Amino acid sequence: MKILLAYPPFSEERIRDEDVRAVPIGLYYVGARLLERGHRVRLANWHDVHRRPGEVARTLAEFRPDVLGLSLFNANRWGALAVAREAKRLDPSVRVVFGGVGATFLWRHFLAHFPEVDYVVIGEGEETMADLAAHLEAGGGAAPAAVPGLAFRGPEGPVRTAERPFIEDLDTLPDPARRFTFQHVVSSRGCPWNCRFCGSPRFWKRRVRFHSPDYFVGQIETLARKGVTYFFVSDDTFTLRKDRVIEICRRIADARLPVAWQAISRVNCVDGEVLYWMRRAGCRQISYGVESGSPRIRAFFEKRFTDDEVRRAFDLTRRFGILPRAYFIYGAPGESRKTIDASIRLMREIRPLALAAYVLDIYPGTRLYEEYKRRHRVSDDVWLSPAEDLLYFETDPALDGEKVHRLGRRLKRAFHEGLPEFAESLELEDRPELRPLHADFLSRLAMTFSHGEYARVGDIPRKAETAEVLFRRALEWHPLPAAYLGLGVLRQKARDFPGSIEVLEAGLARFPDDEQLHLCLAVSLMNTGDFAGALAHLERFPDSEAARRYLPVCRANL
């Protein structure tokens, strides 16, 4: 059969789409299983297809799938329905299958209200989708009652089949990296905790299953050979099993794989040894769910850890040259200036170097959602509205929406205002093998202040000064072309061309063939009137676009 697996668009445009642009990793695993079973499979990332008018219709018309599988979160459900309608318009015989966390918890809702949806895969999708495809290919009819883990429309309305057991050995799944190229990877499935705002406890039943280090590192190696050098490890808690993480990291480090990556962890699931090996293996960032500095609000969220555990995790992460990113959630019951101030105090103690602050949302499948339905006596029909999501403060008369947003802005502003001090106060673990990694860490962090993400944030003070401190500290740990270049550019921007020349020449003394150092030095020399000196540096790189731009200027002035 021809099967098109697609990640549908979201209803609302995002200023920054890094949280939604990646195809869910599960879709690649489903595609790999279907390919193994002999089907023709195509994947489409349509999260931003509104920027490419007509692409959905063109792809459907060209590929003519027998089955269209759509992977849903809650916020892209309307995009999925629009794609399904277009598919049915072009070919009424196409079978539309919804899957993913958004479909699992609203299977009855979709089948009751939207005739364009034929099937919903509930839970883990690889075996269910493969069995459904086999059933349809064999002409087994529209009601595959023998396929577990599936829902469909029966004579009396939506029905679901028996629950499908989890795949116990994840290594039995075909490696999707052999068929597809992607950056978001997982080494495990599930989470043992029970956060009130999260759908994972119900989706994965608080069980965790793991790929072996052999499987996971082999997947990284396969993707690296395809040119993927940066990974997002999307496990709910990558460091859940310390010995396993260390083995994975040892293998990556021993193989000298040219990769960098970031992961998600929990503050009471890291220590110095695991962080050391993560850094050695290329880890650049770890995200931790702090959520709030208020113990009462953290208890409401079911975040069972202490402030001391938060402080320890962030201190160790910083010491090993890994950027600690803090998740905070605002707008919980009882949120006030006092609770936000508690979050700000804790933030100033742990000194995160990145922040993700979100207003509390209510999602299907969460305890928060079930409590909301009972409290307000509503059903899943609330999702017939066009809204992408449901903000908690909209359901709590004790909370004022504008005040909640104002508190959120206060939290984010406090982070931005404190960020230079957070960065400049870094104290790093002094081990010889870590020194080059520390230089790289400090240099990359400096770049975010000089011309990266933080350079564009108005609330952050002393950006250039902070960048210069970090570049100079990088060079104290290990010589690095990027640090010399960063300092040279900062001096240029300050119109200190002699200072720029001095640092760039120092960099070239160590890295005489570095093209960017030569070109930057040429620009500084031109600004001092030394066109002959600049020409000598530019002529080394005649194929460079920058050199071709500046060469005529130098020659005209000689």
From TrEMBL:
Database matches in InterPro entries: BchE-like (IPR051198), Cobalamin-bd (IPR006158), Cobalamin-bd_sf (IPR036724), Elp3/MiaA/NifB-like_rSAM (IPR006638), Methyltransferase_Class_B (IPR034466), rSAM (IPR007197), rSAM_horseshoe (IPR023404), rSAM_sf (IPR058240)
Record-level GO cellular component terms: cytosol
Transmembrane segments: none
Entry-linked CDD domains: Radical_SAM, radical_SAM_B12_BD
Domain B12-binding span(s) in chain numbering: 1-143
UniProt-recorded Gene Ontology molecular function terms: 4 iron, 4 sulfur cluster binding; catalytic activity; cobalamin binding; metal ion binding
Protein name: Radical SAM protein
Organism name: Dissulfurirhabdus thermomarina
Organism placement in taxonomy: Bacteria, Deltaproteobacteria, Dissulfurirhabdaceae, Dissulfurirhabdus
